[in-house]
Design a protein that fits this description.
There is one protein chain. The chain contains one helix and no strands. The chain is mainly alpha-helical and 126 residues long. The termini are far apart. This is AH domain-containing protein. Pfam families: Arfaptin (PF06456).
């Protein structure tokens, strides 16, 4: 009789363990599903935020283009002195021999013209 009681207790313990494992597996599965749903929601939120960001950039570009389209500022003619682009350097400075060239002489250059529906740079699209 004692042996029979021990066997029943062992079966009861094994059944409790089996039930606990099944319950744990079910709860774990539920948690994994919830985590996956939450991850999908975050992905959707990020996509939505990126779409808003891109549409904002498109609108900004469109408005900026409209503002700058009317201002045709080219060609710009600027008469710079010869020292305008001389910077401090560690190399020795070359001294001028005293003969100055005529600053009124201008170099021949091509004038900037508009190409392809108002583009200043060929091949550039809006």
């Amino acid at each position: 009789m004692y042996m029979y009681t021990v066997i029943l207790v062992c079966r009861l313990i094994l059944r409790c363990r089996q039930d606990a494992r099944a319950r744990f597996a079910r709860l774990r599965s539920d948690v994994l599903v919830k985590i996956e749903l939450l991850d999908n929601k975050h992905v959707q939120d990020i996509v939505w935020q990126l779409q808003r960001f891109v549409s904002g950039l498109v609108e900004f570009h469109r408005e900026t283009y409209q503002l700058l389209k009317g201002n045709s500022l080219f060609p710009i003619e600027v008469d710079l002195s010869r020292s305008a682009f001389q910077y401090k350097s560690t190399s020795p400075v070359v001294q001028d021999d005293g003969t100055e060239e005529d600053d009124d002489e201008l170099l021949q250059a091509d004038e900037a013209t508009e190409h392809e529906e108002g583009n200043l740079i060929p091949g550039l699209t809006h």
